[in-house]
Design brief:
By secondary structure, this protein is mainly α. It has 5 helices and no strands. It has a domain of 64 residues.
Length: 93
């Protein structure tokens, strides 16, 4: 019992980490997520169970890969729905 208490006490004095403030989504990001959810409602895709934050990260990743010349679901390992909607809504022209 004494060793368990010794492990808990040092953790209670640790300062809590503050999170970064949330920023509101841009209209393009909202449209991307809305259309992506509509596409996922029509057919089953493993990515449909990801959070909005993960879907936005995947979309931004697709844009970054396109900037260096890597395009396609085989190259990025991201589903075609995410790639196509990211090209339309998230990637700068």
């Amino acid at each position: 019992m004494g060793s368990l208490l010794a492990l808990v006490v040092p953790l209670t004095g640790a300062p809590s980490a503050s999170a970064e403030p949330l920023t509101p989504l841009s209209p393009a990001e909202v449209e991307y997520l809305t259309q992506l959810r509509q596409v996922f409602s029509q057919y089953r895709d493993p990515a449909e169970f990801r959070s909005d934050g993960e879907l936005l990260s995947l979309g931004r990743y697709v844009c970054e890969q396109r900037d260096i010349g890597i395009v396609g679901s085989g190259a990025t390992m991201v589903t075609p729905a995410i790639s196509q909607l990211a090209f339309l809504h998230l990637c700068p022209n």
